[in-house]
Amino acid sequence: MKRLCYIGLGCFLTSVGTSILHHSHVLTGGTAGLSLMMSYLSNIPFGVVFFLINIPFYVLSVMNMGWNFTLSTILSVTLLSVITVGMDWILPSFSIPMSIGAVTGGVIIGFGLSTLFMNRASLGGFNILALILQKRRNCNPGTINFILDFVVVSLGFYSIGFWQGLLSILSIAITSSIISYFKNKIALSNQSTTSNSHVNRYPVKTTVRMN
């Protein structure tokens, strides 16, 4: 129950951070960034696009991270989508200065994603790739997250303008730095998941001696 509460908190924080970036017209990376760009172009709500774009990554998650992690990720993606759509309906239209939105949104998303990672969940997409590489190759998930996010932001760099592009890069750098700060706790969480799966797969046999 405690883990589910933390997952809910992580989704809420990430949703708030994404909303701040959206209203300050700053891009973010990963599948969230792709979803924001597609939302801008198609006028389809971000939550709907974000949910659909993550579906192909679930197969990769099952193969490398197991069903426990995958189901938690599906729950997180669904919850984030619902929260984001709900916030769009409830909150009035507003705008935030780009510089303030980039820093504030990046910080909040960083803590939100770190909370999810430390509780064996993610928001799918590139989050899954970052955690797989940490698990298999001991890579820093914050660094991997920044590289993949940078690629996504670069795709929209020329369409959003130079200054807005720089602020978008600043935002993902802040998010990745916070994830890197918690990398050891995230690694321990993944190791505990792996240990539990080995225990369940190879149960200890006990022998009862009759005197």
From TrEMBL:
GO CC field: plasma membrane
TM stretches of this protein: 42-60, 67-90, 96-118, 139-160, 166-182
Main location: membrane
Compartments where found: Cell membrane
Keywords, alphabetical: Cell membrane, Membrane, Transmembrane, Transmembrane helix
InterPro entries: UPF0750_membrane, YitT
Topological type in the membrane: Multi-pass membrane protein
Protein name, per record: Uncharacterized protein
Provenance organism: Anoxybacteroides amylolyticum
Lineage, highest ranks first: Bacteria, Bacillati, Bacillota, Bacilli, Bacillales
